C-alpha cells in the first residue's frame, strides 16, 4: 500500500463576486453580490487555482459601465474578473503542476479554473506573491513604461505625480528619482500620505490637494516649472499641470479618478490653449501596449527592491467577503499603496 499523501479534497463551489446592477455615480455595496459558482476538476488545457491574493484597481470602475472601452464591461450577474495570484491545486495542462504559483486574470473569487494560456508562473523566491499584483505586476509596469517610454523621461526633468501615494504614483516618483530627476513632486489627499511621499518614497516635495488650489500649491512646490506630469487624477490637477509646464512638457494620462464617478459632465481644463504655445504633448497610457518591456522592467525593479532603493506599501483586506469593501475603499482613496484582498 502506498504511503503517498492523497490529494486534498476540492470544494464543490467557489465564491465569486458578481455585478448585479450598474452603479450610478459612486458604487454602493448593493451593486454587488457574493455568490457560489460550481467547481469541478479542470478541463483539458486548464488549471484549477486557489487564489491567494486578488487585486482591486481604479480601472475596474469603468468596466462597471455599459460602455465601449479598451476593455469589455463587466456583465451583469456574471463573476467579475481582475488580476490574481494563487496556487495550482489541480492541473490538466502540460507544463503546470500542483503546487505551482501562477499569475492570472480571474480574481474576485477564491477558486478559479484558468486556461493555461492565461496563467503565468511566478517565482515566490524573488518577492512575496502579492508583489506580482503591484510593484512587480501590472501596476509596476504601468509606472515604469508610463514614465520612461510614454513620458520620454530625461535625467534632469522636474516630475509632478498626482495620486502619488497610490500604487502607481508612488512607484513613478521613486523611479524618476532613481533615474536622475532634478525634482519630484507629488500630490495626495491627507497629511499622512504627504508625509509618506517625502519621508518614505523620497519625493522632494509634496502637498495635500485638499489644503488649497492645486495650481497655487504646485507653483510653490515647483517654482521653475515642471517638465513631465504623470496624471492619475485629471480635472483640477491636469489644469494646474498645464499652467506649470515648461516648454515641450509631456503629460502621461494614466487615469482620471476624479471623474470616474461623476454623474454630470465635468469641465475640461480651462487652459488648453497653453498646449499650443508651450508645444506640450499629452499622451494616454495603456499598460497592455508595453508588454515588451516586461523582462527589462522585472530585472531592473526587482534589483531596486532587493537593494532597498525602491519601497512599496500594500493595503491588505482579509477574505473574499471583503472584496467590495476593498474596492470601495480604494475608490475613496483610503489605501496607501497597492490595494488587494488576501485569502487565507
TrEMBL record:
GO molecular function terms noted in the UniProt entry: oxidoreductase activity, acting on the CH-CH group of donors, NAD or NADP as acceptor
Matches recorded under SUPFAM superfamilies: GroES-like (SSF50129), NAD(P)-binding Rossmann-fold domains (SSF51735)
Keywords assigned: Oxidoreductase
InterPro entries: ADH-like_C (IPR013149), ADH_N_2 (IPR041694), ER (IPR020843), GroES-like_sf (IPR011032), MDR_fam (IPR045010), NAD(P)-bd_dom_sf (IPR036291)
Transport recorded as keyword: no
The keyword Membrane is annotated on this UniProt entry: no
Pfam families tied to this protein: ADH_N_2, ADH_zinc_N
Domain Enoyl reductase (ER): 27-341
PANTHER family, sorted: PROSTAGLANDIN REDUCTASE, PROSTAGLANDIN REDUCTASE 1
Name of the protein described by the UniProt record: Dehydrogenase
Amino acid at each position: 500500500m502506498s504511503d503517498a499523501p492523497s490529494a486534498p479534497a476540492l470544494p464543490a463551489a467557489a465564491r465569486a463576486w458578481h455585478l448585479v446592477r450598474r452603479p450610478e455615480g459612486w458604487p454602493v455595496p448593493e451593486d454587488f453580490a457574493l455568490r457560489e459558482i460550481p467547481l469541478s476538476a479542470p478541463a483539458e488545457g486548464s488549471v484549477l487555482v486557489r487564489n491567494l491574493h486578488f487585486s482591486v484597481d481604479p480601472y475596474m470602475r469603468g468596466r462597471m459601465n455599459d460602455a465601449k472601452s479598451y476593455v469589455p464591461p463587466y456583465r451583469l450577474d456574471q463573476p467579475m474578473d481582475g488580476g490574481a495570484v494563487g496556487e495550482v491545486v489541480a492541473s490538466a495542462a502540460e507544463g503546470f503542476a500542483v503546487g505551482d504559483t501562477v499569475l492570472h486574470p480571474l480574481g474576485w473569487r477564491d477558486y478559479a479554473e484558468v486556461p493555461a494560456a492565461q496563467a503565468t508562473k511566478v517565482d515566490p523566491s524573488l518577492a512575496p506573491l502579492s508583489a506580482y499584483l503591484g510593484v512587480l505586476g501590472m501596476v509596476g509596469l504601468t509606472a515604469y513604461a508610463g514614465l520612461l517610454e510614454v513620458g520620454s523621461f530625461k535625467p534632469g526633468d522636474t516630475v509632478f505625480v498626482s495620486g502619488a501615494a497610490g500604487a502607481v504614483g508612488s512607484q513613478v516618483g521613486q523611479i524618476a528619482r532613481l533615474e536622475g530627476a532634478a525634482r519630484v513632486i507629488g500630490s495626495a489627499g491627507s497629511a499622512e500620505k504627504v508625509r509618506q511621499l517625502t519621508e518614505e518614497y523620497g519625493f522632494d516635495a509634496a502637498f495635500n490637494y485638499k489644503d488649497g488650489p492645486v495650481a497655487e500649491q504646485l507653483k510653490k512646490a515647483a517654482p521653475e516649472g515642471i517638465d513631465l506630469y504623470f496624471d492619475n487624477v485629471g480635472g483640477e490637477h491636469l489644469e494646474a499641470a498645464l499652467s506649470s509646464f515648461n516648454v515641450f512638457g509631456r503629460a502621461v494620462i494614466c487615469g482620471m479618478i476624479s471623474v470616474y464617478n461623476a454623474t454630470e459632465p465635468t469641465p475640461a481644463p480651462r487652459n488648453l490653449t497653453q498646449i499650443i504655445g508651450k508645444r506640450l504633448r499629452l499622451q494616454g497610457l495603456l499598460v497592455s501596449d508595453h508588454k515588451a518591456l516586461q523582462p527589462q522592467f522585472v530585472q531592473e525593479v526587482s534589483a531596486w527592491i532587493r537593494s532597498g532603493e525602491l519601497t512599496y506599501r500594500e493595503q491588505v483586506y482579509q477574505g473574499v467577503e471583503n472584496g467590495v469593501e476593498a474596492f470601495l475603499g480604494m475608490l475613496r482613496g483610503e489605501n496607501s499603496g497597492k490595494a488587494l484582498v488576501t485569502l487565507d
